[in-house]
Amino acid sequence: MAARLKAGWIVVLFALTSVSTASADGPTDNNPAKVRPVPPKGITLSPADEHELMKGAAALRTEIRDLAALLRSTPALLDLLPDIEIYEKAVRYAVEYDEIFASADVVAAKELLKEGLLRASHLRFGKAPWTTATGLVVRGYRSKIDGSVQPYGLVIPAGFVPAGGQRYRLDFWWHGRGATLSEVNFLRQRRTSAGAFTPPGAIVVHPYGRYCNANKFAGEIDTLECLDHVRRHYPIDDSRVVARGFSMGGAACWQFAVHYPTLFCAAAPGAGFSETPEFLKVFQKEEVDAVWYEQKLWHWYNATDSARNLFNLPTVAYSGEVDSQKQAADAMAKALKAEGIELTHLIGPKTAHSYEPAAKAELNRRIDAIVEKGRDPLPAEIRFATYTLRYNQRGWITVDGLDKHWDKATVNASLQPATGCVLIQAEGATALTVRFPPGSVTTPMMRRFAFAPDEKPSDPLPLTSDRSLTAHFQRAGKKWRQTEAPAPDGLAKRPGLQGPIDDAFLDAFVMVAPTGKPLSEKAGKWATAEMARAVEHWRKQFRGDARVLKDADVSADDIAANNLVLWGDPKSNAVLARIADKLPIKWTKEGVAVGNKTYDVATHVPLLIYPNPLNPRKYVVINSGFTFREYDYLNNARQVPKLPDYAVVDLTTPPGTRYAGKIVRAGFFGEKWELLRDDGK
Fold first, then answer.
1. Beta bridge partners of 469
2. How many folded domains does the chain comprise?
3. How far apart are CA 137 and CA 128, in angstroms?
4. Does residue 637 form part of some domain?
5. 581-600 burial, b if ≥16 CB within 10 A, otherwise e?
6. Nearest Cα residue to 171 out of 235, 277, 262, 242
7. How far is CA 210 from CA 221, 283, 642, in A?
8. Does residue 444 sit in the same domain as residue 548?
9. Nearest in space to 187 (alpha carbons), one of 237, 143, 137
10. Best CA proximity match to 177, nearest among 224, 123, 219, 240
11. Residue 544: which of 11, 151, 47 has the closest Cα?
C-alpha cells in the first residue's frame, strides 16, 4: 500500500554519507564530447602539507612491512593487518593521485596517519582494542578480486560483548553518490558520523563499495566480502540481516534485494534508481538510444526485471513526495503489481531528497517488526526470476542451467501438503537443484517431487539420517528427470562462468601484458593504450591496483587462481598464442574471423570473454577491462555493461568516452559457449 503520512512536512537533514545533491547530475552531463572528470581534480597542496603526508605514509608503510614479518607465525594477528593498511592506502591514494579535494581533507589525512600508527603500535604487542570497541569503528579486509585492502565502517552498539553468546542484528547501509568520496573522506565520515539509522542493539555496517558505482560489479562483491569479514569477527544473527540505503544507496538496496532476497530478512530502499532506461529519461532527461545487446544487459541490474524475487523478502520503500527519485519506487511498484504484489511505499509529504521525520519513524517501526520475526530459513513457497546464472539461488532452489542467457527464467516452488510433494514449475531453466539443509526434512512430502500441477508425484527419495536432502534435476525436452550431477558435463555456461565481459572483474583477475611484436602496428598501439587505460580506470572507479604481469611471467599458479585478461594478439602475447586455436573467434595474420565474416587485421581487434582453455574453471578475457567508460561515470544508472560476450572493434574510429572504437559486431555466445548467428540472438 502507499501510505501518505499526515504528520508535519518538516524535513530532517542528516548525514546521508556522501550524498551529493541531485543538481550534480542532469542534462549538462548528456554530452559525450564534454565529460567532467570523476573523481574530480583535487586542490594544490602546500609543500609542507605534501611533505608531511608523504613522510607519514612512508613511516606507516614501514610499520606495516615490519608487522607483516613479525606476525608471520601468528595468523590471527596477521589477519588484522588490513585494519592498519586502510589508513596508509587512503593517504597514499589521496596524495599520489591528486585526490585531496579540500583543506579539511588534509586535516583528516593527518588524523588517519596517527590512527594507523596507533593501531600498529598496539598490534606490535599483540593487542587490537578496536576489534572489541563500541561506537564508531573502521575496519578493512583484503579483497579476493585484486588483493587490495578495502575499508568499511561499523557502528557497534553500547554493551556489545564479543564472546557473550548473543547474536546481533546486522543492518547494511549503502551510501549515496559523492564524486569526492575518496578513502580519506569515507574514513573521516565513518569515524565521526553514525549515519541515518542506528537501531538499538544492532550492528550497522557501512560498505565503501569501492567508491561510487552504486555497489555494482566489484562494488557488489565489496558488500559480500564485507559481510564475510564481519561474520568472522562479530557474532551476527544471520536471520536478522537488513538491507538499507538512500539515493545511490537506495539503488544498491533495490539490486541487493532482488538478487539476494534470502540473504536478508527485510529491505528498506529509499530514493535512488531501480532500472536504467526510464530513470535516465526522467532524472537525466537523456534520450536513451541503446543497441540490442545493451538493452539485453540492462537485465543484470534492472531491479524491476527481477521484482518477482521480493515475494521472499519483506520490503518497505520510502520516497519524498517531490523527489524526482521517487520514480525508482514507482517503477518497482508497477513491476511488483504485475507479479501480484503491492509495494508498501511510505511517502514523506512535501519532502524532496531526504527522510521526513514521521515517515522515518514509521519506516523504523515496520522494519523493526519484520526483524523481530527474523528471516524464514525454509520458506514454504519460493518465487524466483533470473536472467543470468550469476544470480541463480533462492532459498532451497538453485538454477544450474538456462535455455538462453538474458531471457527471463522463472521458477515457482512450493511444499504441497494436499498432494504430499514439492511442486516445481519452471520456465526458461534447464537444470535445477533442491537443497534442504540438515534437520529440515521432517515429512515425506519433502522427498517427493512433481514438475506440473497435474503430474503424479515421484516416489520419495531415501531418508537421510541427518534429515537433509540434495536432489538434482535436468530437463530433456519438456520432461524433468533426476540426475546425479547438477548440470551436464562439457563446456557450458555455469554459475560464475556465464559472461558477459564485465563478469570477469567480479573475481580474482590478472592483466597480462604482451612482450612480442604485434600482427598490426595500429592494433598493437591500441592494445597498449587500452591496457594502460584499463589499469588507470580500475584504480579510479574501483579503488584497487590491478595486478599486471608480462606474458612470459604468467605461472601455472596464476592460471589456476585468476581470470586472465590478455592484451595484444596471438603474435605479441605468448599466453594468447597458446590458446588462440581453441577460441571461437580466430585471429591470424589473415584477419579476424567471426563465423563466415573476416575483418581486416590491420584495423580490427576482437574483444571477448571465454572459459580459459588452460583452466576452464576460470575466464580468459581478450583486450578489455570493464566496459563502461567516462561518459557513464556521470550517472550511476549508466554504469551497466556496454558489451556482451564478444565484440569486434574498428580502430579507424578512435576510442572515446563511450566505446573503445567503433563496434562493428557484437553478440553473446550460446549456452555451450558456441558462436551463434551474426546478431547473436
1. 436
2. 2
3. 12
4. yes
5. eebbbbbeeebbbbeeeebe
6. 242
7. 9, 24, 20
8. no
9. 137
10. 219
11. 151
What percent of the chain is predicted at pLDDT more than 70?
A: 96
Average of pLDDT values for 542-547?
A: 98
Domain span holding position 604: 501-667
The pTM of this model reads: 0.95
Residue-wise pLDDT for 331-342, tens only, equals 999 999 999 999
Distance CA 390, CA 12 (A): 39
* Model confidence pLDDT, tens digit, residues 82-106: 999 999 999 999 999 999 999 999 9
647 and 514 inside one domain: yes
- The continuous run of DSSP H or E covering 86 comes out as helix 82-96
- For residues 433 and 539, membership in a common domain is answered with no
Contacts of 634 (CB under 8 A, 6+ apart): 25, 29, 35, 36, 38
Instruction: Indicate the pairing of strand 421-427 with strand 449-450.
Output: parallel
* Residue ending a domain, choose from 421, 449, 483: 483
Q: End of a domain among 455, 483, 511?
A: 483
Q: What cell numbers appear for 245 in the block? A: 540505503
3-state secondary structure of 582: helix
Indicate whether 589 and 528 sit together in one domain. yes
The grid coordinates of residue 446 equal 519433502
Grid coordinates belonging to 296: 539485453
Query: Do residues 648 and 594 lie in contact, with contact meaning Cβ atoms separated by under 8 Å?
Result: yes
314 is a domain residue: no
Angle, helices 103-124/47-70, rounded to nearest 10 degrees: 20
* pLDDT exceeds 80 at position 10: no
